[in-house]
Specification:
Number of domains: 1
Number of strands: 7
Number of helices: 9
CATH architecture: 3-Layer(aba) Sandwich
Distance between the termini: 34 Å
Shape: globular
Bound molecules: ligand GEK
Structural class: alpha/beta
Strand content: 15-25%
Strand order of the largest sheet: 3-2-1-4-5-7-6
Radius of gyration: 18 Å
Helix content: 40-55%
Largest sheet: 7 strands, mixed
CATH topology: Rossmann fold
CATH class: Alpha Beta
């Protein structure tokens, strides 16, 4: 089986100007319009995204257990899956990429086809229903925030239970802060970041309105408490840039 190299798969991505028009936005959905500009959108909307993907691939390469699987839940266009596949070029591995947006998976399948294949199995599924089995690495990057809070505990428990002893779980999320003043400051810093990335004030405010009822962020303390309830032995935050953070949690290694 050939292995993926994201550099070859990527043409210059179309620019995201979905919120530049005058129409009032409805709730944000991962449809074909979003999938078409998603690569540009996420790079210009998540501070540190390039670092998070690169380090996710490093963590996966380091912690992968031979004979097990890697899951990329809420994979979108497969940035993490493709980065891992590229790193694991000389090793046999099985990467399961799951998303419930058909247009996103079509985008990932196109990228894989352009690479002549790769060790990535694309699954069109709701991650709440997806069976996680024999996983030494599970990635949930910027997707838990779109899951109803009532379903989050059960999802994390199922992920934990489907992992091998000593496996790692990478969770990246937009977060909120307990302190209202710092929270406002971080939001302001984030909006300035988006303007620095070329979005107008109007685009930032329309996108914020579209996400208001769809993206429900939580504090780091809430995430850490949930990871502990799900059964993870330890959790550390390894990245933060204002209100975007990434954590790594370990399942007990069975010794
Ligand atoms: C990246 N991880 O590039 N089941 C399956 N997929 C879902 C569900 C669900 N219930 N809900 C949302 N999604 C990626 C970025 S984007 C984050 C992840 C963002 C999918 C949704 O279709 C979308 O592709 C992804 O989760 C969230 O590192 O856009 O901020």
């Amino acid at each position: 089986m050939t292995h993926a190299s994201p550099a070859n798969a990527m043409k210059k991505p179309p620019r995201d100007n979905l919120y530049a028009c005058n129409m009032m936005p409805g709730d944000f959905v991962f449809d074909e319009k979003v999938a078409a500009v998603f690569e540009d959108m996420i790079h210009r909307s998540v501070p540190g995204y390039t670092t998070i993907i690169a380090m996710t691939a490093r963590l996966a390469e380091t912690c992968f257990q031979p004979g097990s699987r890697i899951y990329d839940l809420g994979c979108s266009l497969g940035a993490a899956s493709l980065a891992i596949a590229s790193r694991m070029r000389d090793r046999t591995c099985e990467i399961v990429a799951v998303d419930n947006s058909r247009p996103m998976l079509d985008g990932l399948e196109e990228r894989l086809a352009a690479l002549g294949g790769g060790p990535v199995e694309c699954r069109h599924e709701d991650i709440r229903e997806c069976i996680v089995e024999n996983a030494s690495v599970v990635i949930l990057n910027f997707t838990l925030q779109f899951i109803s809070p009532a379903d989050r505990d059960r999802l994390l428990r199922r992920i934990h239970d489907g992992m091998t002893a000593g496996g790692i779980f990478i969770l990246s999320e937009k977060i909120v802060l307990n302190d209202p003043r710092l929270n406002e400051l971080y939001i302001e810093m984030y909006h300035q970041f988006k303007q620095d990335m070329g979005y107008s004030e109007m685009e930032v405010s329309r996108k914020r309105a579209a996400l208001e009822r769809v993206l429900l962020p939580e504090t780091l303390a809430v995430h850490k408490a949930r990871l502990a309830r799900a059964g993870f032995e330890s959790v550390e935050q390894w990245f933060q840039c204002f209100n975007f953070a990434s954590m790594v949690a370990c399942k007990r290694d069975g010794r």
